[in-house]
Model the fold of this input.
Amino acid sequence: MNKRYIITGAPGTGKTSLITKLQKNGYPCYEEISRKIIKEQQQIGKNKTPWGDLSGFVDLVYQQTIRELQNPIDQYTFVDRGLPDTIAYLKSKPCAIPQYLLNFPFKTYYASTVFLAPPWEEIYINDPQRPQSNKESIQIHKHLIETYEELNFKVEILPKTTLIKRVDFIQSII
Done:
């Protein structure tokens, strides 16, 4: 059974650009669910966001992720963030982690290797869905590494280089 490779990292580390490049290279890819939810919440004037109603946001991310994980895949597939990211974000607040996340069978759906984009101040920019400071980004990065390692994923740190070289790095591992 094929599984999804997670591309993770703190805000503003080049994940979405990398996902876009992988998709252009022919790999099936899934967009970041949390960013879509934040945009939707902003458009309808609601606050289920990481800086508003965090528990409501987590529930929405979980529900949409479960729907996405039900889609069958038949080749290497990449996702912009995985469900374990939600745990890392909750730890960074700190907030209680729902039991449904603690008991989730991550390895059933995700490959055991995770690609993590490190903080990269030179490319970091804020936008309406990314209000975190670079300092907050670094803290989130630490929680992401800790969370994925606690869940027994192998974390591969992506090099700070061109998109083409990042894709080559990923392809050399998968």
Notes: The two ends are 15 Å apart (CA to CA). The chain has eight helices and five strands. Residues 13 and 120 are 6 Å apart (CA to CA). The chain has a mean pLDDT of 89.
